[in-house]
Input
Amino acid sequence: MFKRTIAIVKKEVRQLRRDVRLLAVIFFFPVMLLIMFGYAVNFDVKNIKVAIYDQDKSELSRDFINSLNSSEYFNIIGFINNYGDVNKYLDQKVALCVVVIPQDFSKKINSNQETSIQYLIDGVDANTGSIVQNYMFAATGQFNQKVNSKILAKNGLKEFTPLSIETQFWFNPDLKTTRFLIPGLIAMILIITAVITVALSFVREKEKGTMEQLNVSSLKTIELIIGKTFPFVVIALMNAGLILLAGYIFFGVVVKGSYLLLLFTTLIFLTASTSLGIFISVVSDSQQVAFTAATFVSLLPSLILSGFVFPIDSMPWIIQLITNITPAKFFINILRAIILRGVGISAFWDQIIYLLIFIAIFVVLASVIGKRKAESV
Amino acid sequence: MNSIEVNNLTKTFGKFTAVDNISFNVKKGEIFGFLGANGAGKTTTIRMLCGILTPTSGDAMVGGYSIMKESSKVKTRIGYMSQRFSLYNDLTVEENINFFSGVYNLPEDKLKERKKWVLSIANLEGKEKLLTGSLPGGIKQRLALGTAVIHQPEIVFLDEPTSGVDPISRRNFWELINYLSNEGVTVLVTTHYLEEAEFCNNIIMIDQGKIIAEGNSKELKSAHIKNKMYKLESNNPVEVMEQLKKADFVDEVSIFGNNLHLSVNEKLKEKNQITSFINQQVDYKVNSIDEITPTLEDVFIHLLEKGKKKVV
Output
């Protein structure tokens, strides 16, 4: 039994070695995706372009403006002198935010009265808009505190804050997007390469008629599947290593948890991806159909529904339910647990169960449909 | 001794009956021809006999094993080659041979011996490192047969092995089939080249899933064609055929290229009657009329015509 499987592995490797184009795609694709996502997809908002309409022009208002300018989040690109320019700056996207300081700003504060600052924020990109708003709130709060303690000190009183907030971001202390993206990227690349290569490899044999030749031989289905998928699983593992290495070199992401656990869970995920690939090869009769189906089934859900980019918790419940169609969802949970949090299997064993259920469903589907199709040709 | 015994084998796909209750026996070491038009049920039958398709009803013993109950044992006894010469084009000749011997679990010393044999029958000695995809069709076909029998099966199924191959390669390929048969291998071959069927020891003809005739080629001809056959050459065979269909001395007329084959009954007293009949009707030239011995093609067409008449 072992010898026959090895014969198939050897054959697959020989064919792969001659298919330079496919090999190039397999190894070039992950690195390209990593760089694309790592550098281009960045949810961090920095250097927000701010224009100031300072109607007060007092020491206090300049003080406030300086506090904005000294933070890395804001970049003051100009001062405005009339309301007409406010519209111009926002309309032409010269500034993302215009800060309007009222005329009586310092006068009111100095006489212990409340005053207000107006922020006009470009809300076209809702995500960035709300981030800008948060930054502005924080900046205003800091300024409030500063002024408060000054006034208190003047009156000989000590500052008293009943509640102070100490936020610490665990696992990703600097809130770097790349650190959050790398696990998702590994999952996405693995599922795409595994599903597409496995599906194509089986359908090619079907298309060329060699599958029939193998069916007539005394080869068992399980020998064929193991023999044919083994090389691709090895390639996928190499890819995963490559991404981890690149993630470390380019973005400083280190694996906090156990490598052994990482390997073990990756193998389970690859089995799930392979079963999906085999399922696609069973239902499609040409390489073209298989390629389209495999890309569609592996790429889209793992990009949109897996929690890779968009958090699943903020989706409507019906979509949350649909997210279960991609094994990438469970694997990303596992990867984030191992790579970022460095926790053990007790934190994500349920995700492994989900993966196993996924495998079972697709193996059964593939064999039932495969049998039915074999009897109808 | 029979290598293959088929008993009331039937295969239906939904409402369509592809193979309809057929029974036949194939003796050990014989070349058995399986003739029929495309879609007649040849490939379905072979796929059942190879154990990759389960019959709807009936059974067959192949190499002593039941295809219903012991299909995995059947697979160890047979070789199979389809019209697609299922080799890997992106592997070399040697890699293909190694792969199939691996699939059949041949031991190392056996592999060496069989590899030499396959290379010799395919005329590929010294060319082991060539990519299979670069080989000409005829050579590829021989290599495919060689790898299909690398495990020395007692029965080999060839499903239209010669389609798409030039006539000389076809002739050479049949020599190879003869050689296998002489070695004691049972060969079941399907074809729609009826002249190839003359090389077979025994033939069955199949149409719409049913056996319509069986026997060796001599028996088939004498059993089904009692009439005299004439070959007629004309400058407008189609029109002439239409006219001849009306003649009372003609039983059947069919077209073969520029020629017509007519099967005539006892009402035809002499050859000249044909020419004069045609000249009465139309103004086309008849270049020659010769008596011929019927070919298997004539038998096949005769049987199909007869079948149609029955249906009507």
